[in-house]
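Continuing the batch. This is chain 6 of the set; chains 1 through 5 are on the previous pages. Same settings as before, nothing changed between runs. Recording input and output for traceability.
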Amino acid sequence: MISRRRVLKGGLALAGVAAGVSGGLVALRGYAPPVQGLACLSRYEYRTVAKLATAILPEGGAFAAGASSFDLARRFDAYLADEPDEVRSDLSTALALLEYGPVVYDHHLVTFSNLDDAARLAHFEAWIQSDDPLRRQIALALRKFLCLVFYDDPQVWPGIGYGGPA
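Output for chain 6:
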């Protein structure tokens, strides 16, 4: 028979390990500056979306202006404001998985937002081509959603030969 004292010690040890792991993940995430006027994204989610957007749609890429020229992360946030709570909750989970993807899947001690530009793009492209359906689904959905918001801007239309709505 296991004594109550031993169970309590084991429970406290397990709680300590869980606190250490979660504290370590928070420390790896690093600092994200406050962002005023966001409708749904936290400042950390905003940072993840901004870093992803600039990796997918960089300045001087297919277009002279890229995601940061349009503050695509803020537009992404504004678009989400009209979405149902379950969509925003799923997106929050997807962004957390992407942010901690290098730690969880690649066993690196760095989060997505703290990777350099080339490594960030390579990591995201690996998700798009992954055999894991969850990672592939998250990556494709995020890419499609960011492109939808980007190509919705009238400043982008001339670059794709679209004259605007009739």
